[in-house]
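Q: I'm building a small set of examples for a reading group on sequence design. Run inverse folding on the following structure and report the sequence directly after it, with nothing in between.
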């Protein structure tokens, strides 16, 4: 947020990331990589781990709805391909909810995270 004020999604227009054209390329590349028929989850497990998931979840607090949408799609794909990470992903999303309820005043990605949990009971 260029003004430095707290972003209120109900009152403020979303602040679009100026570097989005560059970020979009990275998100699209990573998404296509995960969706590729040649993608090997056994090799990727070395890199897409608990630490990676936690860092990915931190990005959901972005003010830019385009970024949150790509993150949601990416996390959907990871959830679908990495069965060993499913329980950890659900627990980690629940932890984000608990932080939002008890510690933070706001979190921009709550709706997207709810969508993810709603799709995978």
């Amino acid at each position: 947020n260029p003004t430095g004020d707290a972003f209120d999604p109900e009152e403020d227009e979303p602040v679009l990331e100026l570097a989005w054209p560059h970020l979009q390329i990275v998100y699209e590349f990573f998404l296509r990589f995960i969706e590729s028929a040649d993608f090997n989850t056994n090799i990727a497990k070395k890199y897409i781990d608990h630490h990676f998931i936690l860092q990915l979840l931190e990005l959901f607090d972005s003010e830019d709805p385009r970024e949150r949408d790509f993150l949601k799609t990416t996390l959907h794909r990871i959830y679908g391909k990495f069965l060993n990470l499913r329980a950890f992903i659900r627990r980690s999303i629940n932890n984000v909810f608990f932080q939002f309820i008890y510690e933070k005043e706001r979190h921009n990605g709550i709706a997207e995270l709810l969508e993810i949990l709603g799709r995978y009971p």
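The two ends are 34 Å apart (CA to CA).
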